[in-house]
Amino acid sequence: MDRLSAVGDPRLRSALEFVRSQERCVTADELAAEDRVHRNVARSRLERLAAAGLLETGTSREGVGRPAKTYRAAPELEAIEFPAHHTAELVGLLAEGRDDLRDVGAAFGRRLATAAGLHKARTLDDVCAGLRRLGFQASRDGDSIVTPTCPLRPLVAAEPRLAAIDEGMWSGLVGTRARCGISGCLDPSSPCRITIDKER
Q1: pTM of this prediction?
Q2: What DSSP character marks residue 71?
Q3: How far is 68 from 26, CA to CA, in rounded Å?
Q4: What fold characterizes domain 3-73?
Q5: How far apart are CA 71 and CA 17, in angstroms?
Q6: Taking the CA atoms of the chain, what radius of gyration do you get in angstroms?
Q7: CB-based contacts of 56, cutoff 8 Å, min separation 6
Q8: Domain ranges of the chain
Q9: What tens digit of pLDDT does each residue of 14-43 get?
Q10: What is the pLDDT of residues 106-163, one digit of tens each?
Q11: What is the 3-state secondary structure (H, E, C) of 2-58?
């Protein structure tokens, strides 16, 4: 089981949240008491999380009898995202101290284009296909790209003043000037529409 599948299961996610909320390692018996399930069910959930790399196991010699198997949160080096939004790369570009947010976005867009396997000479159809390979739904509509899952939409929705990064990202992705209206990013009932400069 992979990490995304593990957190996608509500029962496993609940078990993971329980382990992360504790100061020390937990046992299957403790999770069983918390979730009001049989200890074998609790143990199975913890083992599946350990197999996915979300928990680490150990043993405890507290009390009489056999040592108890314990579980604790594994060190987390990357966020679980679907699809991968490459935010660590974006933060790295921002940390370089670039002043122009549009320039940061364009550099990020070029990196996404590379990750999507796009070549320098690319059409809008190529860009949409590349984004779909990365897990973002995108389609062409004339001289525009329409996407309900823009890679930076969650960022712009949370912080609208960062729209320049989003517009720069689209320019970097398509290889020419792109305009992205912030109203589309902020409207939860409609997809984003990115207008591409006709001089391609």
Answers
A1: 0.70
A2: E
A3: 10
A4: Arc Repressor Mutant, subunit A (1.10.10)
A5: 12
A6: 22
A7: 50, 71, 72, 73, 74
A8: 3-73, 87-196
A9: 999 999 999 899 999 999 999 999 999 999
A10: 999 999 999 999 988 889 999 999 999 998 999 999 989 999 888 998 888 888 888 9
A11: CHHHHHHCHHHHHHHHHHHHCCCCECHHHHHHHHCCCHHHHHHHHHHHHHCCCEEEE
Buried b (16+ CB within 10 A) or exposed e, 155-179: bbeeeeebbbbbbbbbbbbbbebbe
Of 73, 70, 67, nearest to 52 by C-alpha is: 73
Quote the DSSP letter at residue 199. -
Q: What is the pLDDT of residues 156-172, one digit of tens each?
A: 888 888 899 999 999 99
Read off the tokens for 122. 């690319």
Coil, helix or strand at residue 69: strand
When pLDDT is averaged across residues 85-94 and rounded to a whole number, the result is: 84
From the CB of residue 200, how many other CB atoms can be counted at a distance below 10 Å? 13
